[in-house]
Each structure stands twice: as C-alpha cells, then as structure tokens.
Amino acid sequence: MNIEQVVFYILAATVLSSAFMVVFNRNMVRSIFLFFVTLFAMSGLFIYALADFVAVTQLIVYVGGMLVLMIFAFLLSSKTILNTSATHKTSLIGLHHLPGMLISLLFFLILFVTIHQANPEEIGWVRNAGNNTLVASDNTIHAIGINLMTRYLIPFEIISVLLMMALIGAAHLARRTKKQ
Amino acid sequence: MNFYITYILISVLLFSFAAIFALFSVYAERKVAGFIQDRLGPMENGKWGTMQTLADALKLLQKEQITPTAADKILFALAPIIIFISVYMGFAALPWAPGVIPAALNIGVVYIFAIISIEAIGILMAGWGSNNKYSLLGALRSVAQVISYEIPAGIAIISAVMIAQSLDMHAIASRQGVGTPETIWFMGFWDVTNIGGIFSWHIFQAPHLIVAYVIYFIASLAECNRAPFDIPEAESELVAGFHTEYTGMRFGFIFLGEYAMMFLVGMVGVVLFLGGWNTPLPNIGSLRLADWTTGMGWGIFWTFSKVLLVVLVQMWIRWTLPRVRVDHLMSFCWKILTPLAFLCMAISGVWRLLVM
Description:
Radius of gyration of chain A: 22 Å
Shape of chain B: globular
Number of helices of chain B: 14
Distance between the termini of chain B: 46 Å
Number of strands of chain A: 0
Oligomer: heterodimer
C-alpha cells in the first residue's frame, strides 16, 4: 500500500465514523461540529477524484455557509426546547418509527432494483470512459467554465434565477415593516 | 521518500515563519500604538523593549491552562487549534517569488478563500465551548461580521481575477511585471510589457481595481476582527469576546492565528492587486531597473516589504479610527461596499473585453 492509499482510507474512515457519530450523538452542538469533520474529510475525498474545484466549493458552500448557518440557528434558539428533544426517550421499534422505517425500506428497495436492473457495461459513457481520463495536473476549471456556458447553460441559468428569487425573498423578509 | 521530507520541512518553515512574524508584529504593534499616542511603548526589556514579546511568549507558555467547569471540554480545547490551522493552511498557496510557492494550485485563490472561511467555525466553537455569555455574543458578532464581509471581499477578488484570467496565485503574480506571458497595458493605453515596474501592477493596469483594492482592504480588516471592526472583542462591552476564557498557550494560539491572518490577507491583497513579487522599479531605456531587481531573492524581498507595509497600514488604522457600531458596520458592508464591489466586477468584464 502506498501513502496515497493510506491517506485515502484514513479519509474514508473519518467520513464514515464521523457521520455515524453525527447521527448517534446526543449532544446536538457536538454533532453539528462533528458534521464539519465529515464535510472536511469529504472534500479530501473529492480531491482524490481529481475534482479539486468541487472540493474547494464544498468547503466554501457547506462549511463556510450552511454549517455556520446551522450553528447560528442552534445558538439563537432556546435551550429548553433543545433539552426536551434530547431527553425524549426512544426505543428502536415503535409505532412512531413506522413512517421512517417505511421510507428507508422503500428507498432501499428502489436502489436495489435500480442497481440490479442497470447494466453498467452497456451504457455509452461508461464504455467510453477509458479514453476520457484526467491527470492530476490538469486544469479542470477551464472545462467547468466551458461546459457551464455551453452544454449546461439552461440548468445554470435556472439555478441563477432561483438564487435570485431567494435573495429577493430574503431581502423582503428582512425589511423593516412600515409603521401604520 | 525525499520529497516527503521536503514537504515536512516546508510546512515547519511556514509554521516557524508565522510564529516569528507574530512575535515581531506584536512588538511592532505596541511600538506603533505608542508612537501614535505620543508615548514610547515597551522600553524595559532589552534595548528599546525588543525582548518584550519574547518575555510575553515565555509567560504564556508557563501559564496554567484553565478550563471552566461548565465548558464543553472538547470544543473548548479544539477551537484555538482550528482557528490557527485554518489560517496556517492558507499560507500553503501563497507565492513568494518566481517559482517559489509551497503549493502551486490551479485554484489557489478559491482555496485560500475557502480555507479562511473555516476560521468562523473555530470562533463559533470557542464561543460555544466557553459556556459564557460574553464569549457566545462575541462569537456571534464575529461570525456575522466575517460572513458579511466575505461577500465584498470575494467580489473584489473576482474583479482582479477577471483581469488576470487565472485562479493560480503564481500566474496572477507573474502577469504583473516584466516576463509576463501576455501584453499588458498601463491604464489600457500604454504598452508596458517590457517596461514593467509599478505601471504593470493590477491596480494600474485597470484603474477601477484601486477601488476594488480599497474594498478588499476594508473587508480584510473586518475578517481579521481588527479595529475599527473589532466589536467581537470590544473590551468595554464583552470583556474580550470569544477568547475571554482562554489562558496560556491556548490564548497564544488564538493570538498567533490573528497575526498570521493579518499577514495572510495582506499578502493575498498584494498578490492580487499590488504586483505580488514584482518590483516597483520600471525599465527606463537602457537602465534595466526592472530586469535587475527581478529574481528569487528580490522577489522574496519585494513581497515581504509590500506585505509589511500593508500590515503597518492595518496597525495605523487600528490606532487611529474608533470602533464602528454594529448597525453602521452592517449597513456599510451591505449598502456601500457590496454594490461598489459589484460595480467593479462589471467594469472588470467590460475592461477585459474592450480595453485589454
């Protein structure tokens, strides 16, 4: 095993173990901060997939934006509400778990059937993938920019309109209401 | 195996640089504060008080590390490390001289921008972990401010990147002096490809980048939590903000992170706007000043002196301006800096297409 593989397995183990701890941790603040570990290690895995721009974007969007927002929402909410949810007793099998179990089982079923029916050898882009490889020193942002402006222009524009709507909505909500 | 040793050596070098820089800049800060307020500053330890920060560092090392009883022990202990490491990792992508860059990333600018944003998590950890009202309020104020000012800073950076047409810090620096791979124009009308010097810096290639640099500089002050944007640690209201409960070397690490951050944001500004490692001296006819003062040693010298000048201005501003009120701070960011930054970005696009 060379050192790249060792680092990869360390990163993968960090992602999995911290993700489990996020779910099972009783202390909500700690689980949010553990989520940071998950996201950070995930961006390391993106670098292994030669998607350096995605890795860095993951840091900016999820760590710098989403996670901070989650912590803010947490810190600004009342402590008593959080305590009641923390002491809420749960057993593994119970009626209130039924919807959750149903959804996860159905989702598992869908995944299982899809993977079973898919025939990866027959899909065109999988067959051609051998001729279409990246080297670690390749500059991926040029390809991303060109693709965003040509092939994926409509999704790109739709997302930008959506974000614009969110911005306008946020500005409207934050506006001072006029005194009657 | 050899290059692993090089990696470790370079990271140790960068760490010791950050530590030594913090040591010197704390001394400089006190002296600057003293001179601005018409007093002498530290004078007792060593000649002109030069040993003062060394004595302070020794004191910090010896101090007991107190953890409050009600604190979240793990978060409290980890926060200073995350704050420092996030800044320290940013140093990896900074170019010092032609060819001297610890990690030549294709996306260096975005990388530094992303890494700096991790500092907010560390500050929130410190604020929450301390289990103290002042710390929590300080952390909330700090993060609200850092996130708001990231927007004008980011857009000002983008307007420089649009002129340079690259996200690689090394390529951006090399496009602002002699030896540039493409022709560059002073203010869009005078070909200075072979003249170089101060005329080929980004702020003089496109004059609106002067505005963009001022926006970036103001926003970077806010990101460092430095006066006049130091409401997160406003002594008169919040004791010391998010690091109220820290003692000993943990406090030392937060302090180290703050000063390393000053150098980091200063250097990013220098590389993006002020020519990076390029010399300010132009070629005049057969007097090849720019050619003579470009190279590895000179590059490090110019980078260093430019960044120190920027850091000096940061200190000067800290001891000159009063603290900004919270609502003024936010309205200044959202109503003045952000629209101006957007305007700079739009002008950059037009400039790149029509003038360059």
